[in-house]
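Example 3.2
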Amino acid sequence: MADDEKTTPQTSPPKSGLGMAAATAALAVSALALAQAGDWLRQATGELRHETVLMAQDAAMARSEAAMAAGLFAIDPEERRRLRLTATAYCPDCLDDDGPQLSASGAPVRAGRTVAVSRDLRRLLGRKVFIEGVGVRVVEDLMHPRHAGRLDLCLPNKRQAVDFGVQTLEVVILD
């Protein structure tokens, strides 16, 4: 046989312990980096979901307010100044709170002056209104969001508030 016909078996070089340790360390570092990236991705996804929900809520509120405004301006201007509302009354001194109660406008609640309206009528905040059978009052406060189409009169004592009960009154916006 000729020398070029001789074949020597190919063997891979022996792996050293140092090479295996370096490969294992590289894999561990990669796994740690992937875990941190996964945590960051989960957090970023959660924040994006939250922002998407807030944006959807804002868009829905804007559509609702636009529809309400469009309906408002479809009404005759004189009719816009007159409202028929369910009226109730309360006495600020009858509550268990210490100190003066503050209205939504930041002013102290005053019997004979302050009127609270439902949040659908918040455009009236700060305006003077004439209330049938009651007189001129100032809208200074807002009622709980569960109410709509309502006003709440601030009266000097509990007996007057209870006697007032629940009534349907005509309200004229003065300014």
